[in-house]
Amino acid sequence: MYRGSLPSLITLSQAIGSLAKTVTYDWNVTWVLASPDGFARPVIGINDKWPCPKIEADVGDVVTVKLNNKLGNETTGIHFHGINQINTNSMDGAVGTNQCPVPPDHAVKYKFVADAPGTYWYHSHSMGQYPDGFRGPLIIHDPDDPYKDDFDEEVILTLSDWYREQTPKLLTAMINPNNTQFAPPLPNATLVNDGGDTEISVEAGKTYRIRMINWSAMFSTFVLFGDLDMDVISIDASYVKRQSVKQLRISAAQRADVLVTIPENADQNYPYLVVLDVNQDYSSKNPPRPITFPLNVTGMLVTDDDKDKSGTIEVKTFEPYDDSTFSPHDDEEAYGPVDKQWILNFDYCFDVNGYPRACFNQTTYIAQKVPALYSATSLGGNNTQTAAYGQIGAFVAEYGKVIEIIINNNNDAIHPFHLHGHQFQVLARPPSDAGNWSADVEINTLPPRRDTVAVYSGSHAVFRIKADNPGVFLFHCHIEWHVEMGLTATLIEAPDKLVNYTIPQDHVDACDAMGIPTTGNAAGHDDWDNTDGFITVPPTEYVG
Q1: What sign does the CA torsion over 173, 179, 183, 189 have?
Q2: 456 vs 152: CA distance, rounded Å
C-alpha cells in the first residue's frame, strides 16, 4: 500500500556511517515449556527456544527482523524498546498504535536503522506477552564509545520478576469488579538471566562492562556488587559522566551500563546481589504496608572455580544513587524555551461498569479499531484533531517545538513511566510526598536523558523533548499490569509530516487478515468527526 514516504532507511544509514551492514533475523514466535524458577510453564520463545535470542548490531546498521507468528492461539507483535524509529514509525511495534496485531500463521517484517548506540531490549507490546517470556536483549555497539578503552570485556545481566501463571489468567483476575483495591498480580520469584547462569567468569585486574536490563512486568530491582564499586557510564542507552556508586535501583524497562573492576590482588570470588523491590514505595516514611524484601538472587563474579562461592551480601539499608542526578556526557543543557506543556495526572479509577482501571487526567486509555498511526497517515490535515483518535489520550506536538511533559503521581506507589520515540531530559524527579508540580519547582539545567523514569509516590516529574521525530508514540507506565489497565497516553508528533506516510504492505495484510480497517479515524471513517463505532467503554472480558 503506497502512501508516500519520509526519507528512506538507506539515506539515514548512509548519513550515520559508510560501513553500515544489514543484520537479519528470521524468527518463528513459538510456545516453549520452561522452568526458570523450578516450576514448569509455557513461555513464548523464538524458534522453539527460550530465553529469547539477542539482537546485536553496530551503529548505522540496518536491522531486519522477520516475525512469523506460530503461537496458534494468540496474536502478537514486537517493540524495540528505546529505539527511536526515526523515519520508521510503523516499525515501533506497539499493537493498536503503530500496527495491527499479527494473527497466527502470518508474518511481518520489521526494518529500522540502529541510529544510536546502547543497551536496549525488545519485547511484545501485545496482550501482556512479555511477562510470558517474549523479551530479549538488543545491543547496538558504538565504534566511537567514549568508554571503549576503559573496559576489557562486556556481559549482559538481565533482571526480572517472574510469574508461574500465564498473563491472560492473571489479568482476568485483576481486571475484575471485585478488585476494588486495584491489586496487581504478585510474582513468585525473581530471575537473573531468565533463570540461567548467575556466575560471571572474571579475571583479576580486569574491568567489565555489565549491561543490566530490567524487563520485569512490575517490580524494580536493587543491584549491589558488595565492596566493589559500580561506575555508571550509561542509562537507558544515554552516555553519562562516569559516576561511582554502591547501589542502583533499576526500574522495570530501565537499563544501566556499569564498569566493575576486579582487584589486581583478587584471591576470592565476589558475590553480587539482586533484590526485587516488591514494596509500593521503599522510601516512604509511612508505607501502606510493611517494607519487606522476600525475593532476591545472589550471583557470583568468579575468579577461581575452586574457591568458595557461598559468599553473601548483607544490606542494612537500601539507599540507591539518585539516578535523576547523573550528568549527561555531552553536557547538553535543558531544552528551551518551552513551547507547550503536556500535564498528566495519574491515579486509579473505575470505568462505567465498575471495573478497576488506571487513568491519566481521570480518563483511561481504550484501544480503538484503527491503529493511531494509520489514522494520522490517512486523515490529511485533519490528523491534528485529537478527537479523531478516540479515547487514547492524544496530544499533538508540532514539529520542532519543545514539549514539557509533567507527571503528577497521585498514587502511594512508585511508577516507571516510558516514552516511545525519544530519550527525554529529566529536569526534576523529587522524592516521595513532594506533591504535584508547580511553576516554581526547581529544575536541573544539565539534565540526564533516558526513556524510562521512576516517579515517586505522591510526587511528580518533569521531562522535556524536542518534537523532531515525526510519528505516533505511546507514553505509559511500564508496569505491564497498568498498561493493561489503561495507564497510557499517545503523542501525535509532527502530524503534518505524517500525511501520506507509507505503511508496509505486509503490515496492511495483517490488518486485512484481522478485519481491521487501515484508513480513517478511530472507527475507520473518512470523516474525522464521525464517531459511530468508536470504542468508548473498555471490554468487560480480557482478550488482550
Answers
A1: negative
A2: 36
Q: How far apart are CA 358 and CA 348, in angstroms?
A: 4
Nearest Cα to Cα of residue 116 among 15, 249, 260, 212: 15
To which H or E segment does residue 158 belong?
A: strand 153-162
φ, ψ of residue 99 to 5 degrees: the values are -165, 170
Distance of CA 487 to the CA centre of its chain: 14
Retrieve residue 498's grid coordinates: 505524517
**Amino acid at site 281:** D
DSSP 46: E
**Cα–Cα dist 17/21, whole Å:** 10
CA distance 142 to 148: 8
How far is CA 151 from each of CA 98, 231, 266, 294, 471, rounded to the nearest angstrom? 38, 11, 17, 34, 37
- The set of residues, in sequence order, having a beta carbon less than 8 Å from that of 314 and lying 6+ positions away, is none
* Residues making up the chain, counted from first to last: 544
Q: How far is residue 85's CA from residue 326's CA, in Å, rounded to a whole number? A: 25
CA distances from 67 to 121, 124, 509 (A): 16, 11, 14
- The identity of residue 418, as a single letter, is H
Q: What does each of the 544 residues of the chain score in pLDDT, given as a tens digit?
A: 333 445 555 555 555 555 789 999 999 999 999 999 999 999 999 999 999 999 999 999 999 999 999 999 999 999 999 999 999 999 999 999 999 999 999 999 999 999 999 999 999 999 899 999 999 999 999 999 999 999 999 999 999 999 999 999 999 999 999 999 999 999 999 999 999 999 999 999 999 999 999 999 999 999 999 999 999 999 999 999 999 999 999 999 999 999 999 999 999 999 999 999 999 999 998 888 899 999 999 999 999 999 999 999 999 999 999 999 999 999 999 999 999 999 999 999 999 999 999 999 999 999 999 999 999 999 999 999 999 999 999 999 999 999 999 999 999 999 999 999 999 999 999 999 999 999 999 999 999 999 999 999 999 999 999 999 999 999 999 999 999 999 999 999 999 999 989 999 999 999 999 999 999 999 999 999 999 999 999 998 866 4
- 230-235 and 449-450 as β-strands: parallel, antiparallel, unpaired? unpaired
d(Cα 305, Cα 120) in Å, to the nearest integer?
A: 31
Q: Three cell numbers at 415? A: 511508577
CA distance 62 to 469: 18
Q: What is the DSSP string of 429-468?
A: ---TT--S--TT----SS--EESEEEE-TTEEEEEEEE--
Pair 385, 528: CB distance under 8 Å: yes
**Beta-carbon count within 10 A of 306 CB:** 7
CA distances from 363 to 142, 162, 344, 415 (A): 42, 30, 10, 18
Q: How many CA atoms lie within 13 A of 116 on its CB side?
A: 19
The whole-angstrom separation of Cα 102 and Cα 111 is: 16
- The three-class DSSP label of residue 209 is strand
Place of cell 539515514: 12
pTM for the predicted model, two decimal places: 0.96
